[in-house]
Design brief:
single chain; mainly alpha; about 0% strand
Protein backbone atom coordinates (compact mmCIF):
# COMPACT_ATOMS: atom_id res chain seq x y z
CA UNK A 1 0.00 0.00 0.00
CA UNK A 2 1.20 3.46 -0.87
CA UNK A 3 2.17 5.22 2.42
CA UNK A 4 1.23 8.59 0.95
CA UNK A 5 -2.43 7.51 0.76
CA UNK A 6 -4.37 8.16 3.89
CA UNK A 7 -6.64 5.45 5.16
CA UNK A 8 -10.00 6.31 6.62
CA UNK A 9 -11.79 4.52 9.36
CA UNK A 10 -15.32 3.19 8.76
CA UNK A 11 -16.57 5.90 11.12
CA UNK A 12 -14.85 8.59 9.10
CA UNK A 13 -16.31 7.21 5.87
CA UNK A 14 -19.83 7.18 7.37
CA UNK A 15 -19.39 10.74 8.59
CA UNK A 16 -18.31 11.84 5.10
CA UNK A 17 -21.34 10.13 3.49
CA UNK A 18 -23.60 11.75 6.09
CA UNK A 19 -22.20 15.21 5.37
CA UNK A 20 -22.55 14.61 1.63
CA UNK A 21 -26.15 13.50 2.06
CA UNK A 22 -26.99 16.52 4.21
CA UNK A 23 -25.28 18.83 1.72
CA UNK A 24 -27.26 17.33 -1.17
CA UNK A 25 -30.54 17.56 0.71
CA UNK A 26 -29.89 21.18 1.69
CA UNK A 27 -28.94 22.07 -1.88
CA UNK A 28 -32.12 20.44 -3.24
CA UNK A 29 -34.19 22.45 -0.74
CA UNK A 30 -32.40 25.69 -1.60
CA UNK A 31 -32.82 25.04 -5.35
CA UNK A 32 -36.57 24.62 -4.89
CA UNK A 33 -36.78 27.92 -3.00
CA UNK A 34 -34.59 29.68 -5.58
CA UNK A 35 -36.74 28.41 -8.45
CA UNK A 36 -39.91 29.34 -6.53
CA UNK A 37 -41.08 25.73 -6.48
CA UNK A 38 -43.08 24.27 -3.62
CA UNK A 39 -41.06 22.63 -0.89
CA UNK A 40 -42.09 19.63 1.17
CA UNK A 41 -43.48 20.66 4.51
CA UNK A 42 -44.00 18.81 7.73
CA UNK A 43 -45.70 19.67 10.97
CA UNK A 44 -43.82 20.12 14.20
CA UNK A 45 -45.42 16.91 15.49
CA UNK A 46 -44.25 14.94 12.43
CA UNK A 47 -40.77 16.39 12.80
CA UNK A 48 -40.73 15.42 16.47
CA UNK A 49 -41.87 11.87 15.68
CA UNK A 50 -39.16 11.52 13.03
CA UNK A 51 -36.53 12.86 15.41
CA UNK A 52 -37.57 10.43 18.14
CA UNK A 53 -37.43 7.55 15.67
CA UNK A 54 -33.92 8.54 14.57
CA UNK A 55 -32.76 8.90 18.18
CA UNK A 56 -34.23 5.51 19.05
CA UNK A 57 -32.45 3.88 16.09
CA UNK A 58 -29.20 5.54 17.12
CA UNK A 59 -29.58 4.41 20.73
CA UNK A 60 -30.46 0.88 19.62
CA UNK A 61 -27.32 0.72 17.48
CA UNK A 62 -25.15 2.09 20.31
CA UNK A 63 -26.49 -0.28 22.96
CA UNK A 64 -27.18 -3.27 20.74
CA UNK A 65 -30.69 -3.66 22.13
CA UNK A 66 -34.20 -3.19 20.79
CA UNK A 67 -35.92 0.09 21.60
CA UNK A 68 -39.68 -0.30 21.78
CA UNK A 69 -41.70 2.29 19.91
CA UNK A 70 -43.26 4.74 20.36
CA UNK A 71 -40.55 6.23 22.52
CA UNK A 72 -40.63 9.34 24.67
CA UNK A 73 -37.62 11.65 25.20
CA UNK A 74 -37.48 10.69 28.88
CA UNK A 75 -37.20 7.02 27.88
CA UNK A 76 -34.11 7.73 25.80
CA UNK A 77 -32.55 9.75 28.61
CA UNK A 78 -33.07 6.83 31.02
CA UNK A 79 -31.25 4.51 28.59
CA UNK A 80 -27.94 6.41 28.77
Amino acid sequence: MDPSRKTRSPTSARRTRSRRSLREETKAWFDRIYLDEPTPHTTAAEGHDNLMLCLAMDRSAQKGVAIHLPVEPKDLEAER
